[in-house]
Amino acid sequence: MKNSKLQAFIPLFYLVWSDDLLTQKEFTTLKEFIASRNWLSEEDKQLLLSKIDINTPPSREDLKEWKTVIERSIDDKIAIKSIFDVVVALSDKDMNIEALEPDFIKLENDLGILGEEAISNFKTKTGSFTATSQTDSHFDIQKITTLLDGDQAPIIQKVKSIISRPEFAYETGTDIDFYREKVLVWCKILAHENLGNMAYPKQYGGGENIADYFAIMETLSYHDLSLVIKFGVQFGLWGMSVQSLGTEKHYAKYLKDIGSLKIPGCFAMTETHHGSNVKGLETTATYNHENQTFTIHTPHEKAQKEYIGNAAVHGEMATVFAKLIIDGHDYGVNAFIVPLRDTKGNTLDGITIGDCGHKMGLNGVDNGTISFDQVVIPKENMLDRFASVNDKGEFESPIPSDNRRFFTMLGTLVGGRIGIPRSALAAAKSGLTIAIRYSDQRKQFGPEGGSEVPILNYRMHQRRLLPSLAKTYAVHFALQYLTKRFLNRTEEEMQEIEALAAGMKSYSTWSTRDILQECREACGGKGYLSENRIDALKNDTEIYTTFEGDNTVLMQLVAKNRLSEFRKAFGEMGSFGIINYVYENAKSAIAEKNPIATRKTDEEHLLDSQFHLQAFIHREKTILASAARRIKKLIDGGLEAYDAFNVVQHQMIEVAEAYLERVVLEQFQLAIQTIEDVKVKEILTKLNQLYALSQIEKNKAWYLEDGYMEAVKTKAVRKMVNQLCWDIRPDAVALVNAFAIPESCLAAPIAV
Amino acid sequence: MKNSKLQAFIPLFYLVWSDDLLTQKEFTTLKEFIASRNWLSEEDKQLLLSKIDINTPPSREDLKEWKTVIERSIDDKIAIKSIFDVVVALSDKDMNIEALEPDFIKLENDLGILGEEAISNFKTKTGSFTATSQTDSHFDIQKITTLLDGDQAPIIQKVKSIISRPEFAYETGTDIDFYREKVLVWCKILAHENLGNMAYPKQYGGGENIADYFAIMETLSYHDLSLVIKFGVQFGLWGMSVQSLGTEKHYAKYLKDIGSLKIPGCFAMTETHHGSNVKGLETTATYNHENQTFTIHTPHEKAQKEYIGNAAVHGEMATVFAKLIIDGHDYGVNAFIVPLRDTKGNTLDGITIGDCGHKMGLNGVDNGTISFDQVVIPKENMLDRFASVNDKGEFESPIPSDNRRFFTMLGTLVGGRIGIPRSALAAAKSGLTIAIRYSDQRKQFGPEGGSEVPILNYRMHQRRLLPSLAKTYAVHFALQYLTKRFLNRTEEEMQEIEALAAGMKSYSTWSTRDILQECREACGGKGYLSENRIDALKNDTEIYTTFEGDNTVLMQLVAKNRLSEFRKAFGEMGSFGIINYVYENAKSAIAEKNPIATRKTDEEHLLDSQFHLQAFIHREKTILASAARRIKKLIDGGLEAYDAFNVVQHQMIEVAEAYLERVVLEQFQLAIQTIEDVKVKEILTKLNQLYALSQIEKNKAWYLEDGYMEAVKTKAVRKMVNQLCWDIRPDAVALVNAFAIPESCLAAPIAV
């Protein structure tokens, strides 16, 4: 094709034949174009048409030659930006081809070719910036580990060294019985190392160190999660129920043996028909005056205890929650120690145990059902810290209301709602470590003619994992805060702390659920192989959103607590008036105080921690006031409170969520303020900004509806989230390494 | 307490002692209040204070008496709405207590009591409306089943009757080897029933009915999902690769035996180092001129075939994708039939098989790795429909570009991207049937003093499940549409259909992932027990978002196709100009055409299908134009195309998503137009409205940013979503029953 007119068609021919996106239709378009050009001779047309005959395609050599011709013509010519520019370059200088520009541009468009895109594939590479991003830690990893571990560093180190021993190699078989036994053996080792009794009084052989107990729960969660749940059932639920609900005589009799795992036991609260609504439990404990005993009884099949950990195989005793009946009067739910098996493992008379069988996860824990058929226990087995039966056979309690007494009892068990979210946090850390390390190594696709690129360099992949990494750091500090509040609690603060624990339990476990889902998908097929452990992490933690209180139910409780606090806070005025006032005030406050804030998009502002916190607080307050107002309106309109709360359930979740997000952000910010190391402070500040902005982005519909931000600002937030992901990417591997999870626990071959 | 001043305090005392939410702080508040009332005598004060001494609480009898007093005073008095009203009712008429109203209101607020809420618990119940909602189907279930099944009803019925046989009872053991064998046996039964060869030509013993083949895949998915994947690997991937990539000689030699499962086989494309980027496969097929054979070879460990279904145990042959090398020249990826095992199951020389081992799910499928060490196969084993080696040992192909040829080959395999989303759809239907039936029976909590209420009556629970139900119906009709488009495809439409299939594969499998997550949580602890099958449904489908193309990668392809179509559609003008034009036009069009539409919130408008479709189309077009403009700008600004597409990856996902949502809504609407039965049309119209509005709600941030809707409207949409959930709830059980899933397949005890 030496004819310059024909030369001009080479780039199009090449694209039509080589591009995998062009079809039959494009051939037709090109044919019609050629046929209708009046500046081509009939002979030229025939020649050109022959080159796009689907039945006689060009040879591979033709294609190669065309490519060479094109490359030569555009090499290093920056000015060439469209197919037509190539056409011009290929045609004779003296031919007035530039007049044909509209024709060729139209053809390009008809063919759906984006000239610049096609052209860039021929040019000499200046180096893709996507390809050049890579791991390059900018801070001292150990310093972050030290910060995360805090005062618990010694116990964390001790637990890590124990679970890294060879006997803690993961069980990879699918035999449930074997797995359950192995988990029991592991628990015995931990008991032997004095980890199980860490929270119990020194008087009964314990470590009297609740802070360490929680750190143990969290650190154990880097290992098998069945282990941590079995550990929690035995030493937390079973042991703590004795400690919190019982009295001196129970401590003396049981605590040492529980702590040493000599008495494996259960926490038997949930029944088939009553899980969330535990006030409705139906198991009875009837007082027998004649011999000062209680008869524990399951009135019907659906009142059996269900999902009880340690019940199916190992439990010898249980704390059983049952309605106390004296002389036909119901005194509400109380707790009793009931023996289930003898030391040889034989089930005792009147006890029927069922096995929950195979579960989605946690198959190393022997969950079971328990039914009682008129089981008689001595009076002393009543855990009598909050209620008792006196010598005359009369009910006695410092708390007259059955309801109130029951919730006081439950309140003492709030520790479980600290252990679980911390365990969930550890699982998220494991998942992120595996997924981020893999994504840093796994390469796929790349610039035309260049090497393949680590998938962590792709923006979507960063979006999947890095906001999750930021959130995990944020939750870490928030759970440290929750733990400290719990350890230093006063009676006064108990309700707030209970609500905070219920909320953080939901926030952390839902966060882990979402993060592990992303990790699984981010690791593709490798994430599906059990050897890489995302399987176990995901399926074991799946129930975390349900047990220790269903998250959705807990969030309603949190919201109710917030509403109640809100009302108290504005006690000086009539409640409806104040609600309206706060609501309206909040709405107008932004505009009045800073008319341009809703449209402010400069980088300094978007990254300002004060802006973040104020935005979170504004959302928290406004949603709360709005919910309070709506409920009041519904009830005034004649709805029963129960119905009114049902109508606003969806909004109640938002009330709780906005509160928790504010707490989490605030604690992350406060933690950063204490950091002295400049580099550590710098990277954690970036993570904090990413957490703040990605939450704002998630909630941007609310900010837009509220008028707190305008579209220009929410769009700028999105862009900044992308930018922060890109900026954090080189440090991502170092940031997960700072979790310092033992390699033997990570175990995933893809995370090496 | 006959003193009327003291009587007035009864309601407060009762609340303080009985309410589980009041604490120490409230006691203090109340004490201070009493102590500072100057209208109380010192004696009165002492008496009152004695009633709130934490050390001498009232007896249970006191509490009960107080309650009776309160109830008597307010019984049937509608006018009583606050605690203070009770105070008034309890005090002497002649006492001027009303003047004390501000005092008591302040106290209520300080205590955080919402009077109306507290009072409503004492009133005679008028009947909670939350409690009264119940299952009550308003249409003929069979008519919906008939509509869903369509022309495929006979084959669906046949498959259902086969998988309901006793020999298809689920495998509940955890032994992988046993499970794999059982799944093979099941597949053999299906082959024997002529279901495996349904899509093959009649000439080779097949049913030549691709529509029925897809219906089989979907219906089998009500049963074990390992079964459907093993079935798909054998008859779909392995058989169809021979049919699509091979020629007559291959059909004659293999198809019958593949269809009868006499030759179990594999589809060996993915390698450890190349999954999404299959163009980069490294396995080689080197042509040997001397004896007209190919040598198949794995150059290094990471080039082994991985995740290959049927490989670990059963496969005797495989379609292997490898780069064809002739005389040192690389001719791109082609497909070859390679024997792996003899009929006794012994691995052949040069073949090394690995086992992928335990997976998160699908453990009835024997996924494995395959390595080739200089394995020689005859020339005739090349699947030579698109490329071949002629007698002279020269490469021949009607498609000169290696790239284009490879994608043409892949295009013929698009059927897999129809089977998988339809299988995912069936899994979502199973999960929803289990979760909705359970939620209709499971009761928890209830109005004060009333019975417990089905959890499906709670708004959050409805929000969890009913939009998912609507989406599942929507996806059903969209997948019917995709299937019809595929069956009636012309060469012209192939690219569009390939993109649609890739997109619907992502849309359906992500939808199933989300739905099964909600189902698991909605069923609480029961959802975690393997016996209720959400475990298997969830874990088996987990990999659906990865295999047959990673969803995120596929969505990028869909978006690129949309961009290309967009450019073609506006061929008449210069591309940048037109993009700007469309973009700006779209933005102003709404306001110009209908200035009040952005704030329109009447019910008729919100439920109008035209409004829904226009909103979806507007979003689709605007996002597409915006992405096109942004990419153009980035490339013009000097970025390589590869980098530019990385920068906008997040936006590309939205381009694809908006397109798919529009298609799904449109097809659901079209399907409803064909319905004649009034009641069926009515309920499906409601479901369609719920799908449309819940998607708009999900995307409301976008609509607000774009200005297409204002806050007043997006808030009205949220309210309407709640209302539709409430309205659909009584029909929910009937709507899942209309899926007509065999009870033996559902199997979950909680779904009976």
Automatic annotation (TrEMBL), chains A, B:
Which enzyme type, at the first EC level?
A: oxidoreductase
Location in the cell reads: Peroxisome
- From the Swiss-Prot or TrEMBL record, give the protein name: acyl-CoA oxidase
Q: Which InterPro entries match?
A: ACOX_C_alpha1, Acyl-CoA_Oxase/DH_mid-dom, Acyl-CoA_Oxase/DH_mid-dom_sf, Acyl-CoA_oxidase, Acyl-CoA_oxidase_C, AcylCo_DH-like_C, AcylCoA_DH/ox_N, AcylCoA_DH/ox_N_sf
Q: What is its EC number?
A: 1.3.3.6
Give the family this protein belongs to, as stated in its UniProt record: Belongs to the acyl-CoA oxidase family.
- Domain Acyl-CoA dehydrogenase/oxidase N-terminal, first and last residues per copy: 187-259
List residues of the Acyl-CoA oxidase C-terminal domain: 611-751
Pfam families, sorted: ACOX (PF01756), ACOX_C_alpha1 (PF22924), Acyl-CoA_dh_M (PF02770), Acyl-CoA_dh_N (PF02771)
Main location (coarse class): other
Question: In what residue span(s) does the Acyl-CoA oxidase C-alpha1 domain sit?
Answer: 411-560
Q: Which GO terms describe its molecular function?
A: acyl-CoA oxidase activity; FAD binding; fatty acid binding
